[in-house]
Amino acid sequence: MFKKIKIIIILIALACAFLPFHTLAQNNSPMRVELRPIRVSTTANHFIHVRFSHRIQATERLTLTWPEDTRMPELPQDPDERRRTLERMIESIYIGGFPCGSCQHPPELNEEARSLTFHFPRNIDPTDPDYEFTTIVIPDRIGIVNPTKEGFYTLHLSTASHGTMISVPYEIVESRIGVPEGIPRVIPQPAVPFAPSEYTIEFNVGRGGQLIAHQSMIRIRFPQETTFAETKANYGYWITINGVPSKASYNIHNHVLMIITPVHIENESRVSLNISKEVGIINPRREGNYQLQVSTMEDREWVSSYPYAVTGVEIPLSIEPQKTNRNAHLEMLFSLDQEWTLCPDNPFSIHLPEGMGIPESIDIESIMIEKSLVNHVQIRDHEIFLTPVEVIPTYEPLLITILPSARIYTPVQPGKVVFYLEPNSLNQRFPTQAVNIEKATLEILHVHPKPWNACEKASYLIHIELGDHGLLEQEDWIEIIFPSSTALQEDWDASLVTVNQYHIDHIILVEPHRIRLHLAQPLTDHAVNLFFDAGSGLTNPCKGNENYHLSILTSKEKEAVLSPEYFIAPPLPLVEVSWSGGEKGENEWFIRPPRLEFEIPSDNIEVRYGWNDSAEDQYETYRNPELMPEGFYVHTLHFYAIDPYGKSQISSVLLKVDTYPPRFEIIQPQQSENYTNQSSFKVTGMIEKKAWDDHGILKPHLDTDLLVNDLKIDINTDSGAFDLELSLIEGRQDFTFSLTSLSGKTTTKTIHFTMNQQAPELYEISPEPFSTTLERSLKLKGRTYPHAECWVDQQRVTIDENGYFNTLLYVSEPGLKKIEVYIMDRYGNETQTNLSFWFGLIIQMTIGEKTIHFNQQEIINDVPPMIIEHRTYLPVRALSELLQAELSVQSSPISGKVETVVWKSSHHLLELHVGKNVAKVNGIEKSIDSPPIIVQSRLMAPVRWIIETLEGNIEWNPSTQQIDIAYIQ
Q1: CA pair distance 163, 625, nearest whole angstrom
Q2: Shortest CA distance to 774 belongs to which of 814, 803, 819?
Q3: Is the N end or the C end of the chain the one with fewer CB atoms within 10 Å?
Q4: Cα–Cα distance, 709 to 924 (Å, whole number)
Q5: What's the burial of 164, exposed, middle or buried (CB within 10 Å: 0-12/13-18/19+)?
Q6: What does pLDDT average to over the chain?
């Protein structure tokens, strides 16, 4: 049991060991490289599929580093030319389906480090749940050449945000046709010397020889002994590749036939190439074994085929056309076993059979021996004598050509035709192959619809041969019966149909699938080419992959003849764009980017696509869904589909993405909450313009659907500025501005206005106006509206959230102070008032008068001021009350009489002794010249000494006996 388990484990380990590393790692790798082609030392297209882990900004740099032995393109030494070369490079590079032509800077190429550095053209956000890979396309036009040795290689990718990533190993191979198997095999049919032949060539492409449909070329180099007939056309459908006719015209140059493949052929796959006789390949003139060579654009090394044999059985004779009573083109190839020589002194003759039309004379320019004209032509009965210009050794194959200009006609009766060559020196006739001449009747040679796909409006080229008596006169007609599934329109434009390049007179629709062409002039040639322009009204049958016939009859040959089969291919491949995911707004705009996908109905259809103005050869092949980037842009997607039967027309769809909300700014007012006392307010603002990059040109766009409380606002379409006058009513009002983009995204901003036209009030003033303070400062308190502004004597005062304020007022001199209070609420309403306060005391008294005036008030004492011993005395209590001092007295305990008076104010403490000239001021003894006395039971004190001690000002007017006192603490 354990032994069996051990064997199984060993087998599994061996299997894993032989699996390629890139197969094991590919599914989990964040980067893989797809190379075309994968052969060594070849300029290649690079498709780099990268899974990024997080968002990449458009400004981020990307560096690709190729493996050793990779050859980078050489840049010009001239700085300007080098810069232009780099700019051309960056225009060819694509990232995520977008061209790098919009990148901010040209790329940086480091040949020594084998690196290429450029910027991302768009933001790349891999957070979309369907997002998998971003594809970077480095086309072969950049000029990066694969390593010279086969093996597995890795490519490095570096960004600032992701560091360095290493790709899954990709393979570079030696590639050559027929390796590892499939050396070309050739079958000519017929394999007769110097005969027009059909060729079948089979081979395998190499390990890296994958052929791309409608792009890759196959080249066949024929032996130098092979010749090619001159043809008036080179229709691609004369050549099929793997059974599919080629749509592209072929080309022949220096014995090399070149044809574009109509089908996709994978690496190491089989190719079967069939070349019809119409191409005009003529076998070598001599018998023998020959080899041709094959190469492709992917497998460029010429590879020789297996030998193929050309064997002669008789002298080839070619008569065209092989119809009765036709002006003929004749070719004969003679190759005799015995040596003989043609020279001007040794003519030879050609015996033509009875029944052929031979003129009395032939122009020497109408006959050639090899490529030389003859020197002399003589006709006797049905024998043509030819004298060459120069000596021609005839042990080599000898080609004799008689052109139609010689006016030799085929027999009027059908049958076999044999010519004889008779060299005069040999006195022996040599027969040619027998050529069958058929009765000349109406015949359809070819039918060529273009395009050949089902359900397509097509042009038709129809080659026909008229019979012996079928030449048509003016107003004769040709009638064509198309297959019943061919669509014909009722009204025909005769100018779009020609017969031998001449316009016809008119067209009649005889039956739904039958038309009659009336000639505008006679036909003088049996060969007739009918051409219907694609706009003439013909539509191919809608069932494809079928062979069809049409029939033709004329007014001279009324028995309808059937055409050879012509192939109608399946309909042109149709694919649809599918924008999956994302989120659509209005007007076909995406407000969240979608993924680009194509709905491809079958596996044999390839889709190629490009953006905006990119050239068709820059289109890339669709492989995986591609997440579109965020932003604001309008791009045109161009795409077409290819299958083995053709290429569809290029279709275009518009992709509009706007992931940005519309932006606008309200310039005035600057804040959202506004207070005013005005009945109107002018609002100004600016809408931010957006622009998308259209192939290097920024196209500006302005969102103009701006509403205020559902009313549209006029906008300056040049600058984006707007302004409007708002009407306000008393109280709070809200105004909502909403800007909507074409995609339906909306941005809103609300501003609030509260309108109040009532002036602010002033409450709870403290202290009361006209009140008195003995201090040099006064703390003024009050209340008004919260959020108002207050100035007291032009000084800003803070108001709290409840509307209260307070401030200190200062004076230097006593007197009545008028205070200006100014209040402005947040609506702009104003209140201005004046408040007056007494700072200190202004006292006036007169000797002998009981009334004392102070601060525009008065009091009446029972004892008036008096002069005692030249000093003014006033009752101490009356004076202390005026000066807001506390007064206390101390009496003698024995006599009960007042002995000491204590005066206490906020700044002074005075001790006065009745009858004594000593007093204390704030505890310091001072002398007093007039001590306090008792008069009429009242304690009297000297006014001047007290006022001056208290730092007040006292003035005496002897004329009026008036005392003025100014006092402030």
Answers
A1: 26
A2: 814
A3: N
A4: 82
A5: exposed
A6: 87
